[in-house]
Amino acid sequence: MTGITRRGFTLASAATLAVLGTPGFIGRALAAQTTLSGVEWGGPYIDAFKQIEARQSAVKVRWELHASGAAAILGKLKANWPNVPYDFIAAYDPVFTAMINEGWAEPIDPALVPNLRHIPTHLTLPDAQGRARVVPRGLSGFYFGYRSDIAPLAIERIDDLLSPKLKGQICWPHPTQMSGLHIVALARHAGGDEHDIEPGWKLLKEIAKAGNIGRVAQTEVDFINSLSVGETSVSFWHLAAWANVAKNAPVVHLTKRPGFTTYLSTTGWVILPTSTHKEATAAFLNHALEPENLATYCAVVGEVPASSQVPVDESMQQMKFSPEESRTYTNLPDWAYLATRVNEWTQRWETEIAHLL
């Protein structure tokens, strides 16, 4: 794998060089007719990036939305590789790991995305030469929460999910979402973890048999809509999704509560080695990391910015952990292992849980 190199980039046209000559600006001369193909989540994510795209004129982006959880794109890549139409894909930790392991993440010379210098290097999952393989944009966490205005009871412990008062009130993510981390959360509560998942499946079956799952969310938009309109009131999802629900209703974020854990992750992009527009893609992603644009993204989506150039909004206080709080209430999952379990857990959901709903 050759990667996007500084030398290769300098061999590009003078018009292309104009991009790096003006930091943060994608020059009009850079292949004005270039159309990039990107994969992004729907809802607030695509809303944010349409705004960001409109702030430059060098490229157009043909957007495709993740059909369900981001992990679903892996099967599509596997089935069609190397004949895939994408230049870049938005994803998060487990998908990054899987793409890197498959050789689907193009190494990037940091000089081509200069805004990476404001992002902790370890978040870029660099290769042996120090080239980023991921372009991080936001930091997030996955956790339980509920709408305090309509939930039949205040959730004080995970066992409350079995309460008869919650009949039909839980919006539960499909296993393709978050690499099954919501099942891991149940397992950890019951004495297991991602490597000992049986306690989680046992508890999930009890919740399903109790009739408390009122909606299975195939996508993040499903979750946001269900909680926002009041169809359900309790769920497990990530910071950005909860932030969007909180725009319309009061939300209790169970991030710093005894008995609850927040699972940490990074969102960002991978450039594919099969892309025929690698330099233009790198320039566009650098544009997206400009402070004004990244601030727009974080405000619209509801994430903590990965860049030190963008301040953390006060509305994200639930994701600010002191060192002691971090040790007590957060966990960094084994994302690489989770990525290997998605297909098996999806099949298990269909055979053991779906018929109980």
From TrEMBL:
Keyword Calcium set for record: no
Entries under PROSITE patterns matching the protein: TAT
Q: What is this protein called?
A: Extracellular solute-binding protein
Family matches, as Pfam families: SBP_bac_8
Domain of life according to the entry? Bacteria
Q: Which organism is it from?
A: Pseudomonas mangiferae
SUPFAM superfamilies, alphabetically?
Periplasmic binding protein-like II
Q: Which UniProt keywords apply?
A: Signal
Q: Which InterPro entries match?
A: SBP, TAT_signal
